[in-house]
Amino acid sequence: MTSVNLLDENLLLWNKFRNGDADAFGELMHAHYQDLFNYGTRFTKDTGLVKDCIQDLFLALWINRLTVSETSFVKYDLLRSLRHNLTRAISRSRRAIEPQFDDRLNSPLAGLSRRQQEVIYLRFHMDAYAEDIAGIMSLSRQSVQNLLHDGLRRLRKGRKFIFTNVNRRL
Amino acid sequence: MSIEDYNTLEDLAFSRSFRNWVRNPEGPEADFWINWIAHNPEKGELVNQAKAVIAALESNWKPLPGRIVDTEVRKVLQKIKDGRVNTVREIPLRTSLLNRRPSIAWTIAAIVAGGCILAWGLRFFFHFFS
Fold first, then answer.
1. pTM here?
2. Per CATH, is A1-99 categorized as 1.10.1740.10?
3. Domain range A103-161, its CATH number among 3.40.190.120, 3.90.170.10, 1.10.10.10, 3.40.50.720
4. Choosing among B57, B62, B69, which should be mutated to test the A contact, i.e. which has the most A CBs within 10 A?
5. Residues 6+ apart with CB under 8 A from A41
6. DSSP state of A112
7. A44-73: pLDDT as tens digits
8. Residue of B nearest to A22 (CA)
């Protein structure tokens, strides 16, 4: 399927959803659930909280379907809203601890700053460009580009040991 | 993106085409990348580094089983069907009062109250002993 056809299909699905088609909404949720869940679990290990936030996000989207914009590019808006709700929920439930992004010790992103981890995650796994990431994280585009550049450089330095063996594995 | 544009680690590691080829070296992108590497032998080290970064980052993605996605989507659709969409919580909190971070307003109020008590105590102390 070409990207143009995919774009047309997404737009068709989006317009059906805006007209109150619950089946189309189900398809939309299926299309975005993995990305939202995976992104959400970078902020907290409480998967129940992430699922609740995603559920509320989708219900809010359904309630506001008549007023949402006429576009099929909803993914980054959903990510931004999920980030906002999750970080607020987490910061209220902890004592002065800033929400962490991917604090697993075995993560390849361990050792990078929280923001570096997040911009690399969004760029790599969500196919988001600097402008999209800036919108999701409320940063300037230049800051995102700097974080991407420095983060990738640190990732490369920190994982030099794998470079020598990589051709055998890939 | 044209051939000349693949100059940095970012260009390669975040290129969807390059990543497809790394995942599937026999796939449809193979001809392009084999040809590109042949014409850019000085970028061999960059290619290896990008492959390593891709391998590292891809190990960081664990897909959720499809049945869980189905269940979660069904829950939302059921709520819509039952008309329970007005119960949306803005922020779902799962915390007890003991774990909540005190608000800034309460912190300031506590400091002001503490200061007043201290000032009254000092005034009383000096008044009594002078």
1. 0.74
2. yes
3. 1.10.10.10
4. B57
5. A47, A50
6. S
7. 888 999 999 999 999 999 998 888 877 656
8. B77
